[in-house]
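Worked example 2:
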Amino acid sequence: MVQRTFTAGALALALTGIADAQEQTGQDKATSLERILVTDGRTPIEQEKSGRAFTVITGEQLEKNQVRYVADALRQVPGFAVSRTGSFGGFTQVRVRGAEANHLLVMIDGVEVSETSSGEFDFGSLLVDDIDRIEILRGPQSAFWGSNATGGVVNIITRRGERSGFKVDARTETGTDGTFLGGVSLRGGGQNYDVALSAAFRHTDGFNIADNGNEKDGDRNTTLNGKVTLDLSPDLTVDATLRYVNRKSDTDPQDFRWGSGTYGQVIDGPDWTATREVFGSVGATYVSMDGALTQKARFTGSDTHRDNFSSLDSFSPNTWNDGNRYKGSYQASYGFDTPAMLDAHHQLTAGYEWQRETFSPSHLTQTFSRQSNSFVGEYRGEFLDQFYVNAGLRRDLNDRFEDATTWSLSGAWKVPDTATRLHASVGTGITNPTFYEQFGYYPGSFVGNPNLEPEESTGFDIGVEQGFFHGGLVVDVTYFNQDLTHEIATVFGPGPDYLSSPVNRDGVSKRQGVELSATVDFFNGFTATATYAYTDATEQTKAGDPRLEEVRRPKHAGSLNATYVFDEDHARVFGEVVFNGKMLDNSFSMAGTTRVTLGAYTVVNVGGSYKINERLEAYGRIENLFDEQYQEVFGYNTQGRTAFIGLKGNY
């Protein structure tokens, strides 16, 4: 997939296309020609003025490279590690810069979608059919976004309608393993409103995911999405979003029957997981004082219900949990200039957030809840049209554990008369204990710990971005360093029960590394992007103890993408290579937990498309061209070579 990957101030000349400048968490009224980074802080900013490490992947890139799951797009972002348990739709974790999966905050149209039970988002459900752009921040962002933004933020922004009539898009696709994809969308609008509605369905019979077995494990996913924006007056805009996902995924059990010949291994079984997700928001934006003052109010809600069937759990083969999150926010931003003082522009923002979370597990008859109140402040400054500064401060007042204060500072400098940009950021992050860690309970196997403290982190990154050949080549190199304290880990008691419970560890977990990216666009029709990341991540240990490498986080990872467009833009071919170095994982046996090494792997995907006419396009692709055999999670097989063909059109 050809993506534009940047850290810090990202040169706008290396990007192609026009980005939607609308802030999705509080819609602005117009689309700007500037490329805007919505997620950087509480207010949007031009990408070249951001001091943070970020990547933007556009919906156009996703569509042209026929990416079907967001997780597969994130494999090519420097510093990201993706672990999928088997087939498409299987439980999928994403880690950034060596952090845990619940240290990555995930939002869809500004709505936090991580599950309250685990604190993380299962990327196995996230199709890309209706996505306009993905904004990715690396490094601690809790000062702006609160808990779970310890390692970074992924904000998925869906498409909205254009205010010039209505258009229908449709696609159909079929392929290996009984795979079928169908999608349709309606987008459009009038002078003072726009609306977008979409539906996607994907089904696959799957393949055998267990080392010990031969049955196929499939997946079914239905995703509906809607978005509407209405200008009530020239100064007041209201908007709303609603997303519904219903899916069922076949899984295989891990055998923990004491004395069995396959203890700790993944074996065939009729297990399955069914998930229902509902995310929504409604907001208003009011602009006054000739645009100097912008006020925004928003209410968001999410409900995630998960049913599980386990053929080997004799205590409770059928379990479920339900989690809800409701958030209300208000913020006001005021901008002003000081021409006599460094020819500067300033923007001050103050905001308040209220949040309530609930968690209902099947093993207990009660519903747990917790509430927080947060106060946020932000400053943006631009000086001499070359220096850019951003600072944030946040105070979270929690009713279930200690209050927390987080902060962030970033800066970028565009060196005059050069194509050089220097950038740096530093900040703190927190991750609250999950409901499962605090109150979860499985008879005979797990007991929660209501006395847990939030995890805390401090990190920084610094780098340089350099353009060559008038923007034909852009290279970025960034070094990052981040520590984690009060890490929450699960400890096990002695066998045969191995009763487990979470605790806050002593000591410090250390993560550091280097991220590189290069984008090439030397001549019309050909583009290429290369990324590489070195990540050194170790578990939390006391002073003097040996450093232990974190599992499922490769030290070396990279990608290479190339695209060529020809025949007057009618034909397009692409190829992509994803490399994942060797990494550790856990292996369970009756003797205890040991570490195993998962081998390095390289996956090659190729594809192409041809525009039959202005309204109809045919396409096809081959994934895992060389049928690479590898594992991302110990004991789970991965997809071999597959092929897909399809048609898409617009009316």
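The mean pLDDT is 90. The first strand starts at residue 4 and ends at 5.
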